[in-house]
Automatic annotation (TrEMBL):
<dbReference type="Pfam" id="PF03447">
    <property type="entry name" value="NAD_binding_3"/>
</dbReference>
<comment type="similarity">
    <text>Belongs to the L-aspartate dehydrogenase family.</text>
</comment>
<dbReference type="GO" id="GO:0051287">
    <property type="term" value="F:NAD binding"/>
</dbReference>
<dbReference type="Pfam" id="PF01958">
    <property type="entry name" value="Asp_DH_C"/>
</dbReference>
<dbReference type="InterPro" id="IPR036291">
    <property type="entry name" value="NAD(P)-bd_dom_sf"/>
</dbReference>
<feature type="binding site">
    <location>
        <position position="125"/>
    </location>
    <ligand>
        <name>NAD(+)</name>
    </ligand>
</feature>
<dbReference type="GO" id="GO:0009435">
    <property type="term" value="P:NAD+ biosynthetic process"/>
</dbReference>
<dbReference type="InterPro" id="IPR011182">
    <property type="entry name" value="L-Asp_DH"/>
</dbReference>
<dbReference type="GO" id="GO:0033735">
    <property type="term" value="F:aspartate dehydrogenase [NAD(P)+] activity"/>
</dbReference>
<dbReference type="InterPro" id="IPR002811">
    <property type="entry name" value="Asp_DH"/>
</dbReference>
<comment type="function">
    <text>Specifically catalyzes the NAD or NADP-dependent dehydrogenation of L-aspartate to iminoaspartate.</text>
</comment>
<keyword id="KW-0520">NAD</keyword>
<protein>
    <recommendedName>
        <fullName>L-aspartate dehydrogenase</fullName>
        <ecNumber>1.4.1.21</ecNumber>
    </recommendedName>
</protein>
<dbReference type="InterPro" id="IPR005106">
    <property type="entry name" value="Asp/hSer_DH_NAD-bd"/>
</dbReference>
<feature type="domain" description="Aspartate/homoserine dehydrogenase NAD-binding">
    <location>
        <begin position="10"/>
        <end position="122"/>
    </location>
</feature>
<dbReference type="InterPro" id="IPR020626">
    <property type="entry name" value="Asp_DH_prok"/>
</dbReference>
<feature type="binding site">
    <location>
        <position position="191"/>
    </location>
    <ligand>
        <name>NAD(+)</name>
    </ligand>
</feature>
Length: 268
């Protein structure tokens, strides 16, 4: 039986949900060996039994782990990714908006190649990424990504500068631009734009629209692509995570799929 030793960067909504699901699913073959936090003194509950609490990327060097999963925020990508890859661990990223920075992406990719390990971008909160990436083997004409969330999910973001989130009574579009602009301006809501961009036609050519919908209760994504392969149109409505309405439950589920595939004799 394969075993997987995992370090989690961040102890927020996604990490907590991943750990709860692994426990519910009794995955004794997937062990959380470390959890990275910023403030070691802060009170926190639910940590996986036996996991070491760490605060500095260098501490990964003292831990025997196979894979490091970032679920913290884009500021953590460079420091934790550099050490994880240098230590020969695969590095899974949730804060994919960090990769709107081509130089950072190139630096980490070169390091992964040098250390013979991988940076993994899971589909996160969206579906159809396997099909989009496969379609991109042949020329693509266009990729559009529509993000629709309830007003509460846009609080504390630049959306507040263009619309009154408390007052809107109809579906309101407040952003239209490239995936690079979307990922740059909305690091807590448009990581998915970076995922669809990297799977398809890149950060400049992927067009993103963001919408606040006062009647929505879920986080919605629609990806429409066309090209030599044909046409793709994928729509998904995600339940938000209980402890962070900006993030969708599917992001944690996608990490469970990734981890379970790493230990399973049948990858699906
Ligand atoms: N790829 C995708 O499809 C999706 C990606 N995301 C992204 O995933 C990331 C995690 O999301 P979520 O769990 O909902 O976010 P939360 O805000 O719930 O949790 C993030 C946690 O990370 C901690 N943190 C921040 N920086 C660091 C650091 N440098 N080292 C250690 N811990 C750190 C914070 O701790 P504290 O502030 O207490 O120190 C917080 O507890 C976010 O960037 C989010 O935008 C979200 C949804 C979809
Ligand atoms: O969870 C979602 O629906 C998408 C999200 O927050 C992100 O891409 O950052």
């Amino acid at each position: 039986m394969r075993h997987l030793r995992v370090a989690l960067i961040g102890w927020g909504a996604i990490s907590r949900r991943v750990v709860a699901l692994l426990s519910e699913r009794m995955r004794r073959d997937i062990v959380i060996v470390a959890v990275a936090v910023r403030d070691i003194e802060a009170p926190r509950d639910g940590l996986p039994e036996g996991a070491l609490l760490i605060t500095r990327p260098e501490e990964l060097g003292n831990i025997d782990c196979d894979i490091v999963i970032e679920a913290a925020g884009r500021c953590s990508i460079e420091s934790w990714g550099t050490v994880a890859l240098t230590e020969g661990c695969d590095f899974v990223i949730s804060s994919t908006s960090a990769f709107r920075d081509d130089a950072l992406r190139d630096r980490l990719t070169a390091l992964a190649e040098e250390r013979d390990c991988q940076i993994i971008v899971p589909p996160g909160a969206i579906g159809g990424i396997d099909a989009l990436a496969a379609a991109a083997v042949l020329p693509l004409d266009s990729v559009e990504h529509l993000i629709v969330k309830p007003p509460a999910a846009w609080r504390g973001t630049p959306a507040e500068a263009s619309i009154d989130l408390d007052a809107i009574d109809k579906v309101t579009t407040f952003f239209s631009g490239s995936a690079r602009q979307a990922a740059d301006l909305f690091p807590q809501n448009a990581n998915v734009a970076a995922i669809s961009a990297m799977a398809g036609v890149g950060f400049e050519r992927t067009r993103v629209t963001m919408v606040a919908d006062p009647y929505a209760t879920r986080n919605g994504h629609r990806i429409v692509a066309s090209g030599a392969f044909g046409k793709l149109d994928v729509t998904i409505e995600n339940e938000p995570l209980a402890t962070n309405p900006k993030s969708s439950e599917l992001t944690a589920l996608s990490l469970i799929r990734l981890l379970e595939n790493r230990v399973s004799p049948l990858v699906r």
